[in-house]
Design goal:
CATH architecture of the largest domain: 3-Layer(aba) Sandwich
Number of strands: 10
Shape: globular
CATH class of the largest domain: Alpha Beta
Structural class: alpha/beta
Order of helices and strands: HHHEHEHEHEHEHHEHHEEHEHEH
Helix content: 40-55%
Distance between the termini: 44 Å
C-alpha cells in the first residue's frame, strides 16, 4: 500500500517538476482537487522524492558549503538539484526559498523581483492558504511598467500574503520614475515613508541575483549612460548593478525607487536567490558585495564557485 502511494507521489512530482504540468492540469488528469495535488507535492518533498538539499545554518553541513561560507562570510544557504529544464529548476528554487525563510523564523519579509521570484509566487498561488511563520510582506522596489508579472511587486506581495496568511504592505510608486526630480518628489510622500519604516524592520530580505545585461533593461541608459559598460557591470540585485568585485555602480541620475542600500545592509538575513540562468560572475559579484548573508542556488553553480 505504501509503495503504491510513493509511486503515485513520484508520478505527480514528475508531472509537475519535469513535465511542467500545472497543479490544475494534474488535478484534472487524476480527477481530484487542486488543493489535494498541492498537498501531495508537499508530501513528495517530505518523503524525499523531491530533493532540496540544505547546505548551511543549522540544517546540514558539508565541505562545499563550509568552504563557500568561509570565503564569502555567509551564514548559510540552499543548494538545489538542477531540474530537467530551467523552469523546473526555478520551481525547485522557489519552493526552497519559501521553506528556507520559514525555517529562519519568518517574520517580516522584504521581497525583491525577477523571474525566479515570479515562479515562486506562481507556485504559492496554486496552493492552499496556510498559517506560516511569515507575518508581513513588503516589496523592496516599486512596480515595473513592463507587462511581465514577475516585476509587478505589489501583486506578488498580495499573493504571498494571502497564501501565507500574512500582512501585505504596498509601495504605490513606479520602480523607475520618469526623472530624478519625480523620484525625489515620490520619496517625500507619506506612503513612501510608511514603507521605508517597514523596510527598517524586515527580518529577511529576499534579493534576486540577475545577470548584466538584464531583461527588462530597467532604463539603464537613462540612469547610467555608459557607466555600466565602462565599470564592467556583471549583475544586479533588485535594481542595483555591481561589478565582479561587488562594488555598487552609482549614478547621480539614477531614479529607481527601491530599498536604500544602507537600509538593506541593516537587515539581519539577506538571502540572494539565483534563477536557473544566473551566471557565475553575477553570483560572485553579489557575494563580493558583502550584502548577502545566505544564498539559494542550483547545485552546479555552487560547484563552479568552488
Amino acid at each position: 500500500m505504501r509503495e503504491e502511494k510513493l509511486r503515485k507521489l513520484e508520478d505527480i512530482a514528475r508531472l509537475y517538476y519535469e513535465q511542467d504540468k500545472t497543479q490544475a492540469e494534474i488535478a484534472k488528469l487524476y480527477n481530484v482537487s487542486r488543493p489535494l495535488i498541492s498537498r501531495m507535492l508537499s508530501e513528495a518533498r517530505d518523503e524525499g522524492i523531491v530533493e532540496i538539499r540544505i547546505i548551511g545554518r543549522d540544517y546540514g553541513e558539508n565541505s562545499i558549503s563550509e568552504e563557500i561560507k568561509k570565503k564569502y562570510n555567509l551564514k548559510g544557504g540552499i543548494s538545489v538539484s538542477e531540474g530537467i529544464s530551467n523552469e523546473n529548476t526555478n520551481k525547485l528554487i522557489g519552493d526552497a526559498a519559501i521553506s528556507y525563510m520559514e525555517k529562519l523564523g519568518g517574520g517580516k519579509i522584504g521581497l525583491g523581483w525577477g523571474h525566479v521570484i515570479g515562479t515562486m509566487v506562481s507556485n504559492l498561488e496554486g496552493q492552499v492558504p496556510r498559517n506560516s511563520s511569515i507575518t508581513d510582506i513588503s516589496p523592496m522596489i516599486g512596480n515595473s511598467g513592463v507587462p511581465i508579472r514577475n516585476y509587478h511587486t505589489n501583486e506578488n506581495t498580495r499573493i504571498i500574503a494571502a497564501q501565507m496568511k500574512a500582512n501585505a504592505h504596498f509601495l504605490y510608486t513606479p520602480a523607475v520614475a520618469d526623472s530624478k526630480q519625480d523620484r525625489d518628489l515620490l520619496i517625500k510622500t507619506e506612503q513612501y515613508r510608511t514603507v521605508l519604516d517597514e523596510w527598517s524592520k524586515i527580518d529577511i530580505a529576499l534579493v534576486n541575483i540577475g545577470n548584466y545585461p538584464s531583461t527588462p533593461d530597467l532604463g539603464t541608459s537613462a540612469r547610467f549612460g555608459n557607466k555600466l559598460i565602462e565599470e564592467k557591470a556583471v549583475g544586479r540585485m533588485i535594481a542595483y548593478f555591481y561589478d565582479k568585485d561587488g562594488n555598487i555602480i552609482e549614478s547621480e541620475d539614477d531614479f529607481v525607487i527601491q530599498i536604500p542600500l544602507e537600509v538593506l545592509k541593516m537587515c539581519p538575513n539577506v538571502i540572494g536567490i539565483c534563477s536557473a540562468n544566473t551566471n557565475k560572475n553575477a553570483l560572485i559579484g553579489a557575494l563580493n558585495s558583502g550584502i548577502l548573508t545566505d544564498i539559494i542556488v542550483k547545485e552546479e553553480l555552487i560547484e563552479d564557485l568552488v
